[in-house]
Design brief:
Strand content of chain B: 15-25%
Oligomer: heterodimer
Shape of chain A: flat
Shape of chain B: elongated
Number of helices of chain A: 5
Helix content of chain B: 25-40%
Strand order of the largest sheet of chain B: 2-1-3-4
Number of helices of chain B: 4
Number of strands of chain B: 7
Largest sheet of chain A: 23 strands, parallel
Helix content of chain A: 10-25%
C-alpha cells in the first residue's frame, strides 16, 4: 500500500515537472501578413496577434508593426524575412526567426533596409544565420533594446553581422544584446553613428568599423569574442567607458586599430585579452585613462604610428607590457603626462605623481620575438631571463620608444567592480575564526583537565 | 651483403630527399589563419588569397587587396614569390591568380571592402555579373594598376 502511494506520488511529481518544461507553441496564423501590410494606410499601426506569421514580407510605405510577446515572423535564410524600402517604418516587439529550411550556403538577412530613412527596430528578438539587420543608403536608423542571436555555432563565420550598415548616416544602436554572430555591429562607409550600452559576446568582433567617420561608443560590453573593437580605415572615432575584456582567442585583441586616424579611447577596461591594444599604420591615436590589465601583451605597435598620444593609462600585470620595434622613435606619452607601467620601477622624488625615471622599452626578449616569433617558446627560460636582466642593467643600443613622464601610481582603480575591501574583510573574518577555534578548544580541554 | 647495400641506399635516399623541390601547391586555410597584412582572421574563405614562396611556405590573405598591398610593400623580396593563388568565388577551389578573372564593384562586399572577387575562368566571372547584375570584369594586369582605395 505504502509502495503504491509512493509510485503515484512519483508519477504526479514527474508529470508536474515535465509540464513546466513544455513550452506553449505559438499557433500558426491564417492571416497573411503581407495582405495586412498591403491593406494598411500609410502611417497605420498593425498590431500582430501572438501567432506565427509567414515571411517574406515587403514594406514599401510608412508603417508601424507592433507585436505581442509571442508574435513571430518566420523566414528562411534564402531570402530576407522583411524587406523595407520606405521611410518611417518601425518594428516593435516582434520575433523574427529564420529557422525553417536552413540552407547554410545562403545568408540573406532577417531585415533588409534600402533607402529606409528613420527606420526603428525596438524590443525585438531576431534569430538569424545571415545578418539580422542589413541596411544601405538609409539615414537616422534606430536599433534599440533588441536581442540578436546567431543560429548556428558551426556557421557563425559564414554569417554576417547582427547589425550591418553600409553607406548610411546617423545610426543609433543601443541597449542591444548580441550573441554568437560574426560581427556584433558592423558599420561600413557610415558617418555619424552612436553605439552605446550594447553587449556582444561569443562572436567574432564586438564592433567592426570600416571606412567610416564620426563614430562614438560608450558603456558597451564586448567580452569573449575574438576581437572586442576593430577599427580599420576610419577616422574620428571615440570609444569611452567600454568593457573590452576576455578576448582570449589565440588571435584575440581588446582593441585593434589599423590604418585609421583621430581615434580616441578613453577610460576603457581592456583586460585579460591576448593583446590589449594593437595599432598599425595610424595617425593621431589618443589613448587616455584606460586600464590595460592582465593581457598576454598590453600594447603592440606595427609600422609607423604618427602623433601617438598615451596618457594616464594603467598598464598592469600584462605578461609582456609592450611589443613592437623598439629601435624606432615613439613617445608613449602626450608630452606632459605619461602612463603607469607596473613593469617600471618608478622614482617619484618630488611627489608630483610622475616618476623621475623615464620608462624605456629596451626589453631584449621583446626585440627578439619581434623578429623571431618562435622564440616565444623560450619565454621566461633561465637563459633568456639572464640575458634580459643583463640587457636591462647594461643597455646597449637604446631605441627611442620611451614614456618620458611615467606615473608612479595607477591612474584608475583596478576593475569597475572593485570589491577588494569586501574581500579583505572576508579574509580577516576567516583568520579570526581560525584563531578562535583552537583557542576555545585549548581553553575548553584545559578546563576539563586533559 | 645486404647490410653493405643498406648504407649506400640510405645515402641515396637522403640525397634524393635533399634534391626534392618545395611544393608549389596552395596551402589550406585553417581557422587559426590570419591575414599577414590586416590581421583579420581568414573566415570568408571564398575571398582568400595566398602567395606560395620558393621554400614552400605561404603568406595568406583575407582579401585580394591585401595580397596586392603585400606585393607592393615587400617588392624587394619578389624573387622569393613562387605562385599567387586565389580562391574561386564560384567553386571555392584554388587557382593561379595570373590566369584568373576578377569582378569589381563597390556593391560587392569583401573582407577589406575592396570590392574585388576572384574567379578561375572568365565564364564564371561573367556568370556572376549576369546573376548579380553588378560588376565589371578585370584581368590580372588590370589589378596591377587598380586603385585599391577607390572607395
Amino acid at each position: 500500500m505504502k509502495g503504491t502511494k509512493l509510485i503515484i506520488f512519483s508519477l504526479i511529481t514527474i508529470t508536474v515537472l515535465l509540464g513546466f518544461n513544455i513550452k506553449a507553441e505559438a499557433s500558426h496564423s491564417n492571416t497573411n501578413l503581407q495582405q495586412l501590410i498591403n491593406n494598411a494606410e500609410p502611417g497605420e499601426i498593425i498590431e500582430l496577434e501572438a501567432e506565427e506569421y509567414d515571411g517574406p514580407v515587403f514594406i514599401d510605405k510608412p508603417l508601424t508593426i507592433v507585436g505581442d510577446d509571442n508574435s513571430v515572423i518566420m523566414g528562411t535564410n534564402e531570402e530576407p524575412a522583411v524587406t523595407i524600402s520606405s521611410e518611417d517604418v518601425a518594428i516593435k516587439g516582434v520575433t523574427i526567426r529564420q529557422s525553417i529550411n536552413i540552407d547554410v550556403n545562403a545568408y540573406e538577412p532577417a531585415i533588409l533596409l534600402t533607402d529606409a530613412d528613420r527606420f526603428n527596430l525596438m524590443n525585438s528578438h531576431i534569430e538569424s544565420l545571415g545578418s539580422a539587420v542589413l541596411g544601405t543608403d538609409s539615414v537616422d536608423i534606430h536599433i534599440e533594446d533588441n536581442e540578436f542571436v546567431g543560429m548556428d555555432v558551426e556557421n557563425i563565420f559564414k554569417g554576417l553581422a547582427a547589425v550591418e550598415l553600409y553607406k548610411s548616416n546617423q545610426a543609433f544602436i543601443s541597449n542591444n544584446k548580441i550573441n554568437n554572430v560574426t560581427d556584433g555591429i558592423y558599420v561600413h562607409s557610415i558617418s555619424d553613428a552612436q553605439i552605446n550600452n550594447n553587449e556582444v559576446t561569443h562572436s567574432r568582433y564586438g564592433v567592426h568599423v570600416m571606412f567610416s567617420s564620426n563614430i562614438s561608443g560608450s558603456s558597451n560590453t564586448f567580452n569573449h569574442n575574438i576581437n572586442g573593437l576593430m577599427i580599420m580605415d576610419s577616422s574620428d572615432i571615440t570609444f569611452s567607458n567600454n568593457d573590452l575584456s576576455d578576448q582570449y582567442n589565440w588571435n584575440g585583441f581588446g582593441v585593434m586599430m589599423y590604418r585609421s586616424q583621430d581615434v580616441t579611447l578613453e577610460t576603457n577596461e581592456i583586460n585579460r585579452n591576448v593583446v590589449g591594444v594593437y595599432i598599425e599604420d595610424t595617425d593621431r591615436i589618443n589613448l587616455q585613462g584606460n586600464t590595460v590589465l592582465g593581457n598576454q601583451i598590453g600594447l603592440v605597435w606595427e609600422k609607423e604610428n604618427r602623433d601617438l598620444s598615451l596618457s594616464r593609462n594603467s598598464f598592469i600585470s600584462n605578461i609582456l607590457t609592450t611589443l613592437g620595434d623598439s629601435t624606432t622613435e615613439l613617445f608613449l606619452d602626450n608630452g606632459e603626462v605619461g602612463n603607469y607601467w607596473s613593469s617600471h620601477t618608478a622614482m617619484d622624488v618630488d611627489s608630483d605623481g610622475l616618476s623621475e625615471l623615464p620608462h624605456t622599452v629596451t626589453n631584449f626578449y621583446t626585440g627578439l620575438i619581434s623578429h623571431k616569433k618562435e622564440f616565444q617558446l623560450f619565454f621566461e627560460s633561465p637563459s633568456l631571463s639572464l640575458i634580459s636582466s643583463i640587457s636591462n642593467w647594461y643597455p646597449g643600443e637604446v631605441g627611442g620608444v620611451i614614456d618620458r613622464f611615467p606615473l608612479s601610481q595607477p591612474h584608475t582603480q583596478l576593475g569597475k567592480n572593485d570589491n577588494s575591501f569586501a574581500v579583505s574583510v572576508g579574509y580577516l573574518s576567516i583568520a579570526v575564526i581560525l584563531l578562535c577555534v583552537p583557542t576555545v578548544l585549548i581553553f575548553y580541554f584545559r578546563k576539563k583537565g586533559y | 651483403m645486404r647490410k653493405k647495400l643498406l648504407v649506400p641506399i640510405a645515402f641515396l635516399g637522403l640525397a634524393l630527399t635533399a634534391c626534392q623541390n618545395a611544393s608549389a601547391d596552395p596551402h589550406d586555410i585553417h581557422d587559426v589563419d590570419t591575414c599577414i597584412i590586416c590581421n583579420m582572421g581568414i573566415h570568408n574563405v571564398q575571398a582568400a588569397t595566398q602567395i606560395v614562396m620558393k621554400d614552400g611556405s605561404a603568406e595568406k590573405f583575407d582579401d585580394i587587396g591585401c595580397l596586392f598591398q603585400y606585393l607592393n610593400d615587400y617588392s624587394e623580396n619578389s624573387e622569393e614569390f613562387l605562385v599567387s593563388y586565389g580562391m574561386s568565388y564560384a567553386t571555392q577551389e584554388w587557382f593561379d591568380l595570373n590566369e584568373g578573372a576578377f569582378v569589381y564593384s563597390e556593391e560587392i562586399p569583401t573582407p577589406m571592402g575592396n570590392g574585388v572577387i576572384n574567379f578561375e575562368t572568365l565564364e564564371e566571372a561573367e556568370r556572376y555579373i549576369e546573376s548579380s547584375g553588378v560588376g565589371e570584369v578585370l584581368n590580372y594586369d588590370d589589378l596591377l594598376t587598380h586603385d585599391w582605395n577607390s572607395f
